[in-house]
Design goal:
Blueprint lengths: L7 E6 L3 H12 L4 E4 L14 E3 L6 H8 L2 H25 L3 E9 L3 H16 L5 E3 L11 E10 L1 H14 L3 E3 L5 E6 L16 E12 L7 E4 L5 E6 L2 E6 L5 H7 L4 E13 L5 E4 L5 E5 L5 H17 L16 H15 L13
Helix pairs in contact: 1-5, 1-7, 2-3, 2-4, 3-7
Length: 358
């Protein structure tokens, strides 16, 4: 058993998917590591999103391409594939429940539908093969949705608890209070007080409100609704899970699924990077690291971030962190965003000047 009074190699703030994945990888490599979380709600849905494992993520590839570059978007896709492969391996090993199904992004707003074409183009440049589907399958009207086949939903509570158990089996420590460590990593939506790069000013924190709903007819795929600041619809184990980024979702469910019944609810904190890419890497000094900005896509992107930090800490990476916090957006992207917003406010062009994101 590890001496809990001795200085550890690594202390990780946050027992979410990212923190536990990094802790597990580090413990398996023989390092003395603790994951610190004041709550540690193992066995509970509270604090977790739905277990969506998908490469189709809202308008993420267009955001990254516009703010960064096509190469940055391709790297994001490559790292997400890596994260998904890791999750699928652990899911198979642990016997965690999983269902395969398509993932779609849609909108009912013609102005927002304009951006789906750009997202499709950005995704295809990353080697993905999304298709547009205009088959009317929902009981309310939407524009043609952008669909990526063969994505997955997993039992996220069981998976998180598997990571925690595997972590402690490998010699890791779960703590509710800080412990002395040579290197600290924050994987929470709010970077620690030692935030040296001002990450807290570069992320958009949000509370996702989740509902478990009984509906007359269960949808055949996962869907992200771009309207009303964003909603995620996930059919899972005979119920529809509805996540809303900015409101409770109760009124939306009542109007879009009349006759449905809400049978459960919970909340989960998340944070999106205002600079498109997640913020993963050294936060000012080598002994302070961060992994944040994954929004609701933590299962794939957060796992990818943990894999990148593990490579960095063990020296097995390629010498750089592709999502490093030390970076600046392209000046041309900033100019287009400012000019587009000005043009929109002056009513010179009613096309949304930049894709909505929360």
């Amino acid at each position: 058993m590890l001496d809990r009074t001795a200085q550890l190699d690594l202390g990780i703030w946050g027992a979410g998917i990212t923190g536990l994945t990094l802790g597990l990888l580090q413990a398996r490599s023989g390092r003395k590591v603790a994951v610190i979380d004041p709550i540690l709600p193992l066995g509970q849905q509270e604090g977790l999103p739905a277990g969506v494992l998908t490469m189709n993520q809202e308008l993420q590839y267009h955001h990254i391409t516009r703010w960064r570059s096509a190469a940055a978007a391709a790297t994001y896709a490559e790292q997400n594939r890596r994260g998904i492969e890791f999750v699928l391996g652990e899911v198979a090993q642990a016997g965690v429940a999983i269902e395969r199904m398509p993932m779609a992004t849609y909108t009912a707003d013609g102005h927002e539908a304009f951006w789906l074409r750009y997202e499709a183009r950005a995704m295809r440049a990353c080697g993905l093969e999304p298709e547009f589907d205009d088959t009317p399958v929902l009981k309310y009207d939407i524009r043609p949705e952008l669909v990526l086949d063969d994505q997955a939903v997993i039992d996220l509570v069981a998976y998180r608890d598997h990571l925690a158990q595997s972590f402690t089996d490998a010699g890791g420590i779960l703590e509710t209070k800080p412990v002395p460590a040579r290197t600290l990593v924050s994987t929470t939506a709010y970077p620690p007080a030692q935030d040296r790069l001002g990450l807290r000013h570069r992320i958009d924190p949000a509370t996702w409100n989740w509902l478990r709903v009984e509906v007359e007819e269960l949808p055949d795929r996962m869907r992200f609704d771009l309207d009303d600041s964003g909603r995620l619809l996930v059919p899972w184990q005979g119920k529809l899970l509805v996540g809303s980024r900015r409101d409770s979702g109760v009124e939306w469910v009542a109007s879009h699924f009349p006759g449905s019944k809400i049978v459960g609810h919970w909340q989960a904190k998340a944070a999106a990077s205002l600079e498109a890419l997640p913020l993963v890497g050294v936060n000012g000094t080598p002994d302070l690291l961060a992994a944040t900005g994954f929004d609701v896509w933590e299962l794939s992107a957060g796992t990818a971030g943990a894999l990148q930090l593990h490579d960095h800490l063990t020296g097995t990476g390629v010498g750089h962190l592709p999502w490093s916090p030390i970076r600046f957006p392209r000046a041309s992207a900033v100019f287009r965003a400012v000019w587009g917003r000005t043009r929109y406010q002056l009513d010179l062009n009613r096309i949304t000047p930049f894709p909505k994101r929360g």
